[in-house]
Structure formats: C-alpha cells, structure tokens
Amino acid sequence: MGSCISGKSNKRDSSQTLPLKPQKYLKFLDNSGILTNSYSMIKKIGEGATCQVKLATCKNTKIQRAVKSISISNEKLRIKAEREIEILKKIDHPCLVRSIESFKDPNNIHIVSEFYTGLSLYDMLKEGSGLNEKEALKYMFYIISGLNYLHKLGIMHRDLKPENMIFESVDSESLLKIIDFGSAQYLKKKVYKKKCGTILYMSPQVLEGKYTEKCDIWSIGIIFYIMISGTHPFYSDTEQDLLDKIRHLPIQFKSQKWANVSSETKHLISSMLAKKENERLSLENVRKALNYSLNIRDSEVINAYSTTIAFNTRSELHRSIVNVGLIKIVGSENVGKMFLHLDADGDGVVKVQDFLGSDPAKLKESSKSFREFEGDHLTFTEFLISFNDWSEIFGGNMLKSIFDVIDEDNDGMIAYGDLEKYSTRIHLLKNEMFKGEKQNGSVIKYEEFESAFHGFQGNLIIGLS
At CB < 8 A and 24+ separation, what contacts does 252-259 make? Predict the structure, then answer.
C-alpha cells in the first residue's frame, strides 16, 4: 500500500463523462449494524500501515468475503477512509474491485468486498521470469479497461502496482482486477502535489510533486514493461539512482526478452512512459493502440441478450430482495468478460446496439429491451443482475438464509423496517408493504415469502400476492 504526502494546488474543472440515470438496484450498503453480527472473521490475508484485510464468511449465507478494516484513530484517517468508501460506491466495472457493504465502529471503518481466490499480479510474476507478449496484452487489456472507466468517472488511482491487481480466481483465463482505492482521488484540480504510491511506479511528475491523472498511465506502463521482461526498466540498488533514472533515463529494450516482441508493443510502452506528461498517451489512446479483443462467440452474445431482456420484477419488494442477494450472495465471476466484450467503445456501460449492432430495424424492435432498467444502457451491476439465474441463486436453503438476513431481530417475520435499507425507492416499498388488503398489514412471514418465490421461472420474478 502506498503513502501520500500532502500539498496544495490549483483547482481544475472536471466533468462526468459517463451516462447517469436513476438506480433501481442497490450496489453498496452502508450497514448500521455490527460487523461481527453479520460476518465471522477467518484469518488475516493482508495488512497496511493503517489497515488490515481479513477473509470473512457471511453467517447466514456462508459466502466468503474480504473485509478491509481501516483505522479511524484521527480525523485525517477518518476523512481518508470515508473518501475511499465514497469512491467504491461510485465505481462499477468488472476490472475493478466490487465492494458491497460497510460497517463502522468507534475505532475502524470496515469495507466488505468480493473475495478473489486468484494470485496477485505481483505473486504471479514472482513465480516466473516474465510473460509472453500475448499474455501481457491480455492482462493490460483488463487493466486499461478498468482504468479508462475510472478516469472517465473523474477518479485517479495513484497507487497502481502489481500488488494492487488480483486475479478473480485460480482459473488461467481469470479476469484481472484493480484493488485498493485508499490513495484514489477525484480529478478536481489542474495539478496535484500530494506524493502518492510506491516509488518504483511513480512518474517523474509525482516525484516532483506536480502531476495529473497521467501518473496512472506511467504506473501501468512500468507494469507492462515488467510483465514482459521480468525486470523494472529503471531498477537500481540505491533509491537516489532509481530516482535519477526515472527522471532522465530513456526507456530501453536491450535484453533478449524483447527480441520477439512487436515494434507496436514496444512503441506503446515507450509512449506510456514518456517523461513529459503532455507527450504521454491518454488512456483512451492507449486502449485504442492496444487493439486487443476477447474471444467471445456470437452464440454467447445472443444468449446473453436473451437472458437480459427476460429479466423482470413486478414490485419494489422483490427488487429489495434481489438487492439482498446482490450484497450477500452474488459474485461477479464469469460475468465480466461478456460485459467487456459487449462494451466495445470502452465507456463502461452496455447499450442495446452493443448487443445488436447498428441495424435500425433490430434497434427499433428492441427499443424496450432493457425495460427493467431505466435508460438505453446497462451498468455492470445491472448486467450482473440480469445475467444471473435468480431461481438458482435463491434455490435450496439459500432462500431461507436470505429471509434470515432480512429478519435481523429473528422474530420470524419481515417488516417494513427490516427491508427499508435494501430499497432504493423507499416510498414505493412503503406503499406495497402497507396495502390495506394485505394480510398482517406490513408483515411477511416466511411461508408467504417462500410461496411467492416458488413462482420463479428463470429470470422472471413474480410479485407477492
């Protein structure tokens, strides 16, 4: 984990470049409860100067999560932790960590995220002597996809390094995800002076204390070089010599490792590691120059589209229950690659035309394809919702586990107050729960809850009767 040294700088104008729309579904929950009432801590899996990460299990669903506990022993740490949570709430992309819930106590803020079973990029590289060009391009595609989205959102990471990139699973074809947003910052200034990150991955401008979001491009350029060569381009035995090389030494491709690497890839790395920021490529141009695409069959795309347009809910009550599933059960594994493939322009959302192309007849016919999700596009969370088979997710004993998650006071009934925090449209939920003709007024017993969900058919969710 990197460090930051503060300073002042001029304000900068920053505009959101990603499409915005009302959200029916919940992607992150600020939980007012006690962490250990919901999760059992298993073991420590990571540690930083002011935080530690533990593997945890949800007591009701038995799903494993990663819990990052951040010290808030002083005001500065509290503000930093709250900014990290604010950023994690905003990000929604398959190549960025998916955080789902937070808890707070007098000493710590706890962030609950998906638990990824794969190695970090650092550990994977440590086991070998570098990757071939094709492998490196694939991993850079994932890194650049996530970072391009992040920059479009108006956020820079500032601590990109192999330790902060982790494979989703142990599968050799697993997605690579960027984690640890403790040093991330909004792009609200023209120039930043706070030195953040790890020296090995700091750009010349960060070292000088006068940089922009292009510091992230430098960092991933260093990572790109290391992935192929197995060595740092400016490695030195002393810190001062390292700093001098970062500032002044031109990038070189002299080792035998580069003999069979294409001139296009070497040129791209050189452009990412340009000493002057105004000569360094933008992320959008890096994405275009990378020219990498995933191998997804047309039949898989058609199936994804059919699954997406089939998803529908009939009530805010059911949406709230889906939200519980999102927070407590669902993982994004095996969904991200399809999303990346469909997001051809790399803007971080999937549109109808991404499925169907630009054929006017097809688009007109499918104008209401995303009827469950307002607007003409799907965010990653919405894609995750529509892509999953909820009858399977809520199958077996999991439905009872979900009921128990909602029923926090263990009285065997779900009341409006139990569900309120899982709804993004509280007024609609309240109207549904307090219908005059509804038995027991605002209370749902498990038998009624279970009976309604016996009506699950694929992705169609019926309303409670």
Answer: 255/229, 255/231, 257/130, 257/228, 257/229, 257/230, 258/228, 258/229
Task: Tell me which residue of 204, 246, 207 sits closest to 225, measured CA to CA.
Answer: 246
pLDDT in tens, 131-152: 999 999 999 999 999 999 999 9
| 159 is known as an active-site residue | yes
Given 13, 92, 105, 159, the catalytic residue: 159
**CB within 8 A of 278, min separation 6: which ones?**
none
- pLDDT confidence band for 242 (50 / 70 / 90): very high
**CATH 3.30.200.20 location in the chain:** 31-114
Alpha-carbon dihedral of residues 244, 249, 253, 254, nearest 10 degrees? -80
Q: Which CATH number fits domain 31-114: 3.30.1330.30, 3.30.200.20, 2.20.25.100, 3.40.50.280?
A: 3.30.200.20
Helix (H) or strand (E) holding 249: none
**How many angstroms separate the CA atoms of 54 and 17, rounded?**
35
Q: For 1-33, how does the pLDDT look when each residue is reduced to its tens digit (9 = 90+)?
A: 555 544 333 444 344 456 566 678 899 999 999
Which tokens belong to 457?
Answer: 């058919």
CA-CA distances (angstroms) from residue 108 to 114, 192, 355?
A: 19, 28, 44
| Superfamily (CATH) of domain 121-290 | Transferase(Phosphotransferase) domain 1 (1.10.510.10)
**CB 461, CB 322: distance < 8 Å:** yes
pTM over 0.85? The answer is yes
Amino acid at 416: Y
pLDDT tens column, 104-129 = 999 999 999 999 999 999 999 998 76
